[in-house]
Amino acid sequence: MSVLDAEPREGNKCHVCSTPLPKSSLICARCGAAHGEANRCPHCNTIAGTEPHPSLKHGCRVCGGPRVPASGEGVERSGKEVPDLLEAGKSARRAMGFRLLGGLVGGFGALSLVVTLLVLLVANAGFLASVFSFATISIPLLLAAWAWRKGGQHAKTRDRALDAAWSLVVADVLASRGEELTAKELGEVIQTSENEAEQLLATLRLDDHIRARVTDEGELVYSTASPARLRVAGDQLEEEFAQLEEQAAERSRARSS
Question: pTM higher than 0.90 for the full model?
Answer without folding.
Answer: no
